[in-house]
Amino acid sequence: MTSNKALSDWVAQVERHVQADHVHWCDGTAGEYRDLVQQMLRSGILHELNQITHPHCYLHRSNPQDVARVEHLTFICSRSQDDAGPNNHWMDPAEAHAKIDALFAGCMRGRTMYVIPYCMGPLDSPLARCGVEITDSPYVAINMQIMTRIGMPALKRIEKESSFVKGLHSVGDIDPKRRFIMHFPEELTIKSFGSGYGGNALLGKKCHALRIASWQAKREGWLAEHMLIVGIENPQGEVHYVAAAFPSACGKTNLAMLIPPATHKGWKVWTIGDDICWMHLGKDGRLWAMNPEAGYFGVVPGTNPNTNKNAYEMITHDTIFTNVAVTQDNQPWWEGLKEGTPIADWQGRPYDGKHGTAAHPNSRFTVSASQNPSYSPKAEDPQGVPISAIIFGGRRPDTVPLVYEARDWIHGVLMGAGTASETTAAATGQVGVVRRDPMAMKPFCGYNFADYWNHWLSFPAKSTRLPKIFHVNWFRQDKNGKFLWPGFGENLRVLRWVLDRCNGKAEATETPIGYLPTTSAIDTDGLGVSPETMQTLLSVDAAKWRTEMQALEEYFRGFGERLPLTLRNELQRVTAALAN
Ligand code: SAT
Ligand code: MN
Predict the structure, then answer these.
(1) 225-294+378-579 CATH
(2) Which candidate in 107, 250, 277, 502 is catalytic?
(3) Which of 116, 134, 185, 521 is deepest in the core (most CB within 10 A)?
(4) Structure confidence at residue 208 (pLDDT)
């Protein structure tokens, strides 16, 4: 099937080991997609949704034990444990291979083994990277077809370049006790067993495009980040690009597809990507960003015409739904939808409203980016887009202001490293506790965070035209737990301030934690947010921030001597400023 010997040898060796009944090389055609869907409808892996209201939409119900990423079962298996760092679970590579290979032995007997050549990024982009995923899940195969560029063109590129990431995946018997997601960065290899959930099973996404790619990026001088990329067009027709990092399920997809509010005539938002961003320094010294993905694997609950009209419209056809509820007439249903009544929950049980939500809180849509009304043609540009601002953010009920700006790149790295957020349903575990999530990369950085920050800190020596760095918090609450900022489309008002700062136009006050907008610098015209609320949103409580810095210092201590001195000094500078 391929002239690449490394690839054909690997496929043959896997085939012998897993004992698959059939081998199917995915060509990425529409006919192949259709055939796989038909086969899954017959076997019950997919259910047809109402084809009149939702043409070509299907529902997949996961095993209830397999609905999110499993960070405690995710390992970085570098030769040295220190290279993985305290931010990762580590296993010795030999031990890890032995453990997971034993699970793979004979696991595809009676099954078809799909071989999926894929490309992360536009096929003609020098910044794109290829991989091959072998899986026994046809659900994974069709999701990969939407999320990446699969098939013959990717295979041709692999044959030309000869280097590719090897990903081996089996759903096994979906037993959480026999589940591992293992990464061997030095071998450009991923092995994932026992889960069919997106982040664990679509190996091009978090496993390749973040964990393996971040490791490669460090060695090669670029950045692989958990960021959306968005273009903001002003009424004069100028477009500026922003990359923003938020933890999973904090609204990255909504921000990437933002619809300007009615007060903002002439503004337009263009989506480049909603989850992953690869950035390279251009010859001009600017950071150029590319979205390695070709689709969205987004959180469904909360999606409606008010929160995300673009997403709401794009998932009315040609969409795979995972773990949503259904109505009497077989339409997909989820919490936050204004119309319809669920009759069956995400597990297919009659829905009585008494046993939790109808849709799973981490239910997902898989859809091609080309269906997004705000999809930017620049997303296919092989060079990517130039980034004016980098934004970090988290879900913080208190302490952290709506927006503030770093005084320089080094301060921005501290800001990113200090990001923390309330946990969400995207990962298994307790929801709603604040945890450190530096650069929103806690679950996704394939190496030691200390080295990662060092890598970030290396950029000012290479360029004087780096983006400005900001931090935002859309999730600030009052005493009664009510959100102080309306969010969604109104976030454009904050992005305007950010871009005006980049262009030297907006007002700011210097504080110990960075530059904050003056109270009138953010346009609140027609917003209905009082000046007092704005004041709260834009205030710095020095006592709370001293505690925040202490917590960060303590967190940094876990990285020992490997923590860059520059970062330690920067933390001390901010701490000293807060003491005055
Ligand atoms: O990891 S997933 O892609 O499944 C979702 C997320 O956590 O962002
Ligand atoms: Mn994500």
Answers:
(1) 3.90.228.20
(2) 250
(3) 116
(4) 99
